[in-house]
Amino acid sequence: MKKNLGVTDRVIRSLIAIGVFIAIYAGALVSPWSWILGGLSVIFLLTSLVSFCPIYAIFGIRTCKTAS
């Protein structure tokens, strides 16, 4: 599994995930969509931690500069 997420992409994904978690915790998202957004946020956070996105791999997208 080669890295395909750059630093900027990882930071943006992490900030989006944290923002959604805060909105859910604060009660701003209380509809059934909060479960869907929460699940997507977990995926965003995990992919940013491991620097790999399976969807990017399928389409051949790379935002990282090194080939490690």
Number of domains: 1
Low-confidence stretches: none
Structural class designation? mainly alpha
Strand content: under 5%
Oligomer: single chain
Largest pleated sheet: none
Query: Helix segment count?
Result: 3
Helix content: 55-70%
Mean pLDDT across residues: 90
| Beta strand count | 0
How would you sum up the global shape? elongated
Question: What pattern of helices and strands is seen along the backbone?
Answer: HHH
Q: Roughly how many Å apart are the termini?
A: 9 Å
> What value does the Rg take, in angstroms?
13 Å
Notes on the protein architecture:
By secondary structure, this protein is an all-alpha fold. It has one domain (7-59). It is 65% helix and 0% strand. Helix 1 (7-26) runs antiparallel to helix 2. The chain starts with 6 loop residues before the first helix and ends in a 9-residue tail after the last helix.
Describe this structure in a few short sentences.
Helix content is 65%, strand content 0%. It has helices at 7-26, 33-50, 54-59.
What would the keywords be for this entry?
68 residues; mainly alpha; 65% helix
Layout: helices, strands, pairs:
Blueprint: H1 7-26, H2 33-50, H3 54-59
Helix pairs in contact: 1-2
